[in-house]
Design a protein that fits this description.
GO terms for molecular function: transmembrane transporter activity. The protein is built from eight helices and no strands. The protein is mainly α.
């Protein structure tokens, strides 16, 4: 629900207060001033630096702190967490604020570091991709970095094959889906064993 509220706020600003006067009537927000743009230290997108700092920070938080342990317990079973005396609602709200803050930081890095403006498509659907990445990495922070790199290569490769070979960029999405279904299939056979029983007549 909050996603749609934020989306409509951006659209309202795009059509009104922040509308670019030099866009010749085209609805868009003006590009950020130079002091609102992130620099490129060593020629690297600033988001890479933040991501490389966040990965060990999140890993330590989840593995070695009480709050991280509480998140893991609530994620496995709310009833178990309640029985252990944990305030489940408080833990959920705290986790939502933390994850929302990190997502907002990612959006700021995209808007100020790459796009240099704010659009209603700043997220680009990466939230849903992030769910798949986290699941494939089994919620392991170091592995998430590797899986994210693979998916980033697929996304960039999709644009490349579209321009070079006239193949739809959706081929990358198709490949991501194939990877996901294969992993789901292997996960099923790892977790469960198919047993064929002969019933007596």
């Amino acid at each position: 629900m909050a996603n749609y509220i934020a989306l409509y706020i951006v659209q309202f600003l795009r059509e009104g207060l922040w509308k670019d006067p030099g866009a010749k009537g085209f609805p868009q927000i003006a590009r950020f001033a130079a002091n609102a743009r992130l620099s490129l230290p060593l020629g690297v997108h600033f988001g890479w630096i933040i991501a490389l700092l966040l990965i060990p920070a999140v890993y330590i938080y989840m593995r070695f702190t009480k709050q991280g342990y509480e998140i893991a317990v609530v994620g496995e079973s709310e009833k178990t967490a309640t029985y252990a005396g944990m305030n489940v609602r408080k833990i959920i709200m705290r986790t939502m604020f933390l994850s929302g803050g990190i997502a907002g930081l990612a959006g700021m890095l995209q808007a100020s570091g790459a796009d240099r403006t704010l659009t209603d498509t700043v997220a680009g659907g990466v939230g849903f991709t992030a769910i798949i990445v986290a699941w494939l990495a089994n919620l392991s922070s170091p592995v998430i970095l590797l899986v994210s790199l693979v998916f980033a290569i697929l996304e960039k490769g999709g644009g490349y094959i579209q321009s070079m070979f006239q193949i739809s960029a959706s081929a990358a999405d198709l490949l991501q889906g194939i990877i996901l279904f294969f992993v789901l299939g292997f996960e099923f056979f790892i977790r469960y064993r198919v047993v064929i029983r002969n019933r007596g007549v």
